[in-house]
């Protein structure tokens, strides 16, 4: 079992920045591929970013590439999503997820609202 708790969401103006955090507990965190997903109102949940268990490899959705940065601190069992140059279309609930076979573990989500 892996427990994930997100924090750091809030209201920000377009062009601003936010840093989301995900605290993980449970099974060996350092061996998990970790990711961030988001779900906007009326839309399906979509992939935003992922990071390998070593932190040496990252991937991003085209919509956030060059603006968002995913990172991890295995010593603290934390995953972060630094979001810069935020746009109103980034408004969504952001979820942290851990991959075992599939994306098997999810946090409860944190709301990010970007005003124009």
Task: Tag the structure with descriptive keywords.
mainly beta; 4-stranded antiparallel sheet; 116 residues
Q: Report the β-strand fraction as a percent range.
A: over 45%
Low-confidence stretches: none
Main beta sheet, described?
7 strands, mixed
Q: Can you give the helix content as a percent range?
A: under 10%
Please provide the ordered H/E string of secondary-structure elements.
EEEEEEEEEEE
The geometry reads as: globular
- Gap between N and C termini: 40 Å
Secondary structural class: mainly beta
Number of H- or I-type helical stretches: 0
Number of strands: 11
Radius of gyration: 13 Å
Overall pLDDT, averaged? 94
Structural features, described:
The protein is mostly beta strands and 116 residues long. Helices cover 0% and strands 56% of the residues. It is globular.
Summarize the structure.
By secondary structure, this protein is an all-beta fold. The chain has strands spanning 2-7, 10-13, 18-26, 33-39, 46-51, 58-60, 68-73, 78-83, 92-99, 103-106, 110-115.
